[in-house]
Amino acid sequence: MTAIRLLLVDDDPLVRAGLSFMLGGAEDIEIVGEAADGGEVDALVDRTRPDVVLMDIRMPTVDGLTATESLRRREDAPQVVVLTTFHADEQVLRALRAGAAGFVLKDTPPAEIVAAVRRVAAGDPVLSPTVTRQLMAHAAGTGGPTRHTRARARVAALGDREREVAVAVGRGLANAEIAAELYMSVATVKAHVSRILAKLGLNNRVQIALLAHDAGLLEETDTP
After folding, report:
1. Of the candidates 63, 59, 40, which has an alpha carbon nearest to the alpha carbon of residue 50?
2. Rounded to the nearest 10 degrees, how much is the dihedral formed by the CA atoms of 152, 156, 160, 166?
3. Largest CA distance in the chain
């Protein structure tokens, strides 16, 4: 079994030490580096080639949001999981829009942080349906008509079935739930999700959910 290569980024040395102790004890996770500021991340990624970066948002010089945006522009971008003390705020939303695969709270139980790293390394987002709904609610009213118009133009590229899947992803449903609701196989759902990502130039399901919200697709499904 190949170990998941993990890079830790947090300006607090005690937090880094705790995360290193917690995550380094997992047989399938290897801590390949640590950084105290977002400005160190690109060079460390070049040197250590992590699969996953656990990224603090608030750091004094270069914050985690800026570092995440920089990382996700790379062709060989690692997955990013944001570390935060807030369930939903504008910085978390911006990190997710930039391509972060999810976020975990700093007071999350150790076993759940380990599980989150494993999920992201396997290509799954770290957002429960409950958290997705919280984020959608927090995003309401942000961005204004310009974001809505741009989002509508982008989703116009989707076929009817892809649009239905995008709405279901936006509601926080898992593949199996989407398959049951739309009467298709899980493999077909996965294929639709892959095509949506490719057509819209998105990184992950989290971004599909945010775009569906921005375009007003979730509101349309709620209309009698």
Report:
1. 40
2. -50
3. 55
CA distances from 36 to 19, 153, 187 (A): 13, 40, 41
pLDDT tens digits for range 169-206 = 888 788 888 999 999 999 999 999 999 999 998 888 88
Query: From CA 120, how far away is CA 52, in angstroms rounded?
Result: 7
Q: How far is CA 113 from CA 100, 165, 176, in A?
A: 15, 28, 24
Stretch 103-111: mean pLDDT, rounded? 84
Instruction: Render 99-151 in DSSP notation, one character per residue.
Output: T--EEEETTS-HHHHHHHHHHHHTT--B--HHHHHHHHHHHTT-SHHHHHHHH
Buried b (16+ CB within 10 A) or exposed e, 123-146: ebbbbeeebbbebbebbeeebeee
Both structure tokens of 44: 């460390």
Residue 23 has pLDDT above 70, yes or no: yes
Half-sphere exposure of 66 (CA within 13 A, CB side): 11
Q: Which residue type sits at 52?
A: V
- Contact partners, residue 126, CB within 8 Å, separation at least 6: 81, 101, 102, 103, 104, 116, 119, 120
Residue 153, class by beta-carbon neighbours within 10 Å (0-12 exposed, 13-18 middle, 19+ buried)?
Answer: exposed
Q: SS3 of 52, please?
A: strand
